[in-house]
Amino acid sequence: MASTTTTSSSSNESSKKSLLECIVFSTGQPNTPESNISGFGRAYKEQARPLFMDISANQSDVSFLRNKKVGIRQKNKLKKRPIFAKLLVTLHLNIEHMKYSEFEDIISQQRMRKYLQACNNESKRAMTLYRYNLKLSQEMFALISCFEVTLRNRIDKEMKVHFGNDWLRDFILPGGQFHYDPRVEGTRKIIEKAYNGLMRTHTYSHSKLLSELEFGVWKFMFNNVQYRLGGRCLLHIFPNKPRSTRTNRIDNSRIFLELDYINNIRNRIAHHEPICFGYPICIDTTYTLNNYTRMMTLFQWMGIDTNDFLYGIDHVGRECGKIMCI
After folding, report:
1. 43 neighbors 75 (Cβ within 8 angstroms)
2. 120-136 pLDDT, tens digit each
3. Which residues contact 25 (CB under 8 A, 6 or more apart)?
4. Which of 11, 293, 314, 323 could connect to 310 by a Cys-Cys bridge, CB 3.0–4.6 Å?
5. 252-270 and 286-301 are packed helices; what angle lies between their axes, rounded to 10 degrees?
6. Pick from 259, 73, 11: which is nearest to 150 by CA?
7. Euclidean distance between CA atoms 22 and 288, whole angstroms
């Protein structure tokens, strides 16, 4: 019995020590007072989900997310500590069970090279970073999907007013805006391929044609040539955009550029490329957060309240916080 008690006590002390090592302040030094881990022992023991931090696009504002595993008293106590307000922390709970050699054999040595380099050749951190990057990609892609559907529908609604309910089909048929102009051949071919496929299967409808088209088509609707051929009307879908100034022009070219950035990160995620690195290779989510900010800005310009629209969906800040704490 005494032996069991000793073993249990030793295990608890080990758990406390492991937990303590995970609580690192912005100075990079562990927080050593024993009182600061009071209340977290049970959460650690039960392999609770990590206590994550939510950060804004500039990574400076830190606030606790709701966490039912952590008591209100502990949260309030920690919130009152000024230094803790500057903390970006994750309680890493020994979730890595696979050996790195096995993990690398599955993912490939070449693919893991960046992750190892960013993690100073610490294999467990590299595996964690790989998994967290997948989670961030998942969260980011969900928002991009919402944005793409919104953009597509707003474009469609505006074009129907000026060109009719089947405007997209009509644009590529003889006499249409995109039919004869060689400068829009790429866009026309993409639309034609989708249209012809639907006609072969006798399933054509305007809404199906819309859903067949990729993000790039909607981006290029703001390219100078397509914008002019489309009647120069698409800026109307951004009723809340600021007025252009001499030093800050917000015209179709600016929208095209912003959409191009979003399209690039969309394609990176779709092709399983990482979105958690800076240059030179280091752990950095600035690239992702910048594109997140672009989407939120364009949503705002379209007059959409993202707090309501993306309620329960937007977890990008949380996932970026987790990555920056690895």
Report:
1. no
2. 999 999 999 999 999 99
3. 31, 83, 84, 86, 87
4. 314
5. 130
6. 259
7. 25
